[in-house]
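User: I'm curious whether this sequence folds into something compact or stays loose and floppy. Could you predict its structure so I can see for myself?
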Amino acid sequence: MEARRVLVFGWGAAAEAVLREVAMYKTAATVLCISHNSQASDCNLQDVCNQLSMSCKLSDVDAEILALSREFAPELIMSASYRKKLPNDILELCPDRINFHPSLLPKHRGCWSGFWSIFDGDVETGVTCHRMVEAFDSGAILHQKRLPILPTDTSASLYRRLLPITADCARNVFQQFFDSQGLPAGQEQVGTASYHFRRLPFQGIIQPEWPDEQVERFIRAMHFPPFDGAAMLVNEEKISVDSFEEYCRIRREAEAATAL
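Assistant: Here's the prediction. I'll summarize afterward.
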């Protein structure tokens, strides 16, 4: 049987998890990975692909990416943490196009899914594999796996805990794709949808009107080293805040200074 041509658009450790799962079908799949010139600090997909004997191309030029994709002539297009929306010219190259999204769609479409799951006080999150359509993160669901959010979770810890969930979700979908029956049509998304743009929430600043519970969640949600965490404004000075306890101390000291 001729190997299936699988085109992966990805970035970071989530894409690595997906690539390692498709590598289990090395005799049944020919894989091309396309990623960005700037790689994640914790995961270089060129190194991963070299280990897995896969081709990997780095580019941020739309015309070059389209040319590579057309030449490869994929039978399956996958996206995992890719940092750009795939244009219709690429989506139209084959009927099977899937994305691995780190939330329980239709909640938290778009970016910063981990942050918003924590900040909004969700009790669970997960990974959704869905068909890609023109509207962002709104295609039919092929598989969804849930994960409880712990009261101590930060965006960084939740990101790490979701990696094996991503791998499990990919494993389930690949079993279907490489089976003679192929991928199902999927189930339409149901429930209340939300969407978040790729911008720093609240500019990273704790808002003075928030109750303590919201502040505590914001501080955890902003924790993702090496990026800046939460901050608060005291007399127009921006002060970094690493924990809710530190926030309370700084607030008490500011209130005491104001009372003098």
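Summary: Residues 8 and 51 are 16 Å apart (CA to CA). Residues 155-178 form the longest helix (24 residues).
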